[in-house]
Design the sequence.
């Protein structure tokens, strides 16, 4: 699996946008970028994923650079409940074999402050 | 609620005990996973079941024995565990095949081995 690099921690003021960066400079052309988050003592929660284009859903936006070597997860209006560890993961597109395996790193602890 | 339930939520067991963790998914998925999360360490994949067949065993000691009787249920049988096996055990499910593969996690079982 391609490796990802994320800052260990970040702070964000409540109501402001939280921009979480991720470097994946060795990503292959057939690998998606996935984001999950884990609120303390809960199971991880899927947020969003993308391949080349920017993506948006009800939780967040994902901006992937044109060279695909980095991406940014954007929480447009962070709330206190968004305090969590955010994981950026890359994995192959094709199904079968071990391609459904997710390899979690240490992630970024985002703390949203009142 | 993610559609994945785990019981019990908390378990304390001695090193000579035998216990089982249960996971059930109500999402119609065909792949299920066990992960282990020790304190201050990333999530570690333990086992993968695809269409009830075990497709990955990530070098897990034999004192952990998984069972997948059908695509909705997954068990982790525990016997003669060690204190270092104390951790949060997470179950997840996904729809294998296709290109997406989001995994949905249960709330986890907090296991303490005394």
Sequence:
């Amino acid at each position: 699996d391609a490796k990802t690099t994320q800052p260990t921690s970040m702070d964000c003021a409540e109501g402001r946008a939280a921009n979480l960066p991720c470097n994946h400079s060795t990503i292959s052309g057939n690998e998606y970028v996935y984001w999950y988050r884990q609120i303390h003592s809960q199971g991880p929660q899927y947020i969003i994923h993308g391949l080349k284009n920017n993506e948006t859903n009800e939780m967040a936006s994902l901006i992937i650079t044109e060279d695909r070597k980095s991406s940014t997860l954007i929480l447009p209006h962070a709330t206190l409940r968004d305090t969590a560890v955010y994981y950026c993961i890359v994995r192959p597109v094709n199904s079968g074999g071990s391609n459904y395996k997710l390899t979690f790193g240490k992630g970024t602890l985002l703390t949203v402050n009142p | 609620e993610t559609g994945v339930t785990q019981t019990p939520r908390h378990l304390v067991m001695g090193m000579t005990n035998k216990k089982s963790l249960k996971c059930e998914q109500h999402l119609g998925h065909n792949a299920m996973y066990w992960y282990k999360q020790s304190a201050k360490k990333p999530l570690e994949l333990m086992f993968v079941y695809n269409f009830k067949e075990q497709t990955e065993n990530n070098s897990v000691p034999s004192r952990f024995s998984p069972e997948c009787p059908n695509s909705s249920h997954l068990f982790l049988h525990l016997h003669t565990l060690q204190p270092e096996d104390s951790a949060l055990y997470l179950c997840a499910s996904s729809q294998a095949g296709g290109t997406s593969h989001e995994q949905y996690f249960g709330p986890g079982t907090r296991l303490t081995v005394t």
Notes: Chain B has a mean pLDDT of 90. The interface with chain A takes residues 2, 4, 31, 42-43, 45, 48, 50, 55-56, 88, 90, 92, 94, 96-108, 110 of chain B (CB under 8 Å). DSSP finds no helices and eleven strands in chain B.
